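This section describes the prediction task in plain terms. A model, or a person checking by hand, is given the sequence of a single protein chain and must write out its three-dimensional structure as a string of tokens. No templates, partner chains or ligands are provided. The sample shown here is typical of the held-out split.
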Amino acid sequence: MRNLIPSWVRVPVVFLIILGAVEFFIDSGSKPAFIEYPAVLLFLLLVLLILIAIEAIIAALENVMLHKLEGEAKARFLAEKENSFQFTWLKKTYNKLLGQKPIEKESEIILDHNYDGIKELDNDLPPWWIYAFYISIIFAAIYLARYHIFDGDNQIDEFEIELAEAKTAVEAYKKTAKNLVDINTVTLLSDASDLSAGKAVFESMCIACHMADGGGGIGPNLTDKHWILGGDIKSVFKTVSEGGRSGKGMIAWKSQLKPIEIAQVSSYVLSLQGTTPANPKAPEGDIWESETTETPTE
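The expected answer:
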């Protein structure tokens, strides 16, 4: 009896031990296991309810045993229980929040009801329950004012804000991960560094067919407004990546160039629009009028 640990200490201690074991044995990465796996959270809640139920049963049995004891034995039991834990201030705070009468004073609040020897106590609602009830009323009033009177951001508004933030984050990520570009996400590059890199690729891979100034040779003139397979950035990107028309035209460069290099050389090709080559080849294809063919500036 002297080393008896009260239930308000046993329950959290045992629960924390179980929680620590769960976190130790379940690999959940950087997140706690009960957040990463909802089933773990349900398991822990079930364990907590079981621990509370066990403590409630133990407390009920102790109460029944206490009423069976004679005067001296009863006094000794109460004295030993009183001295079983030394943090008296914490125990007093706990009892105050619980709002229960001491066992020896239960005779003051016992009711006349008697069901097969089971008697009923006229305990008030626990203070913690009353405080929680008042807090819920205050919360409801604040919630009503914020969302139904002052038109605060609702779930749809918050979703749209988070979606906009996510799009911004994706765009910022793309700037540092340009090699993820593809036919669906490619945009016209205008940075001097990108155009310079595209020019290097062009001079290495393309001048044999299109000449150094883009005027055309075996391949078509890249400086006029006529295009065989389209003159916007997506069309040029696809042509460089996949090649020209089946059986003839330019080869596919996707196996030799990285996606960012294809985007850079495509942007450089479009930067040649409106320039004057030394020996321009006759126009081929159709005239392409599009805002995406605006010449990027170096």
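For orientation: Residues 292-298 have pLDDT under 50 and may be disordered.
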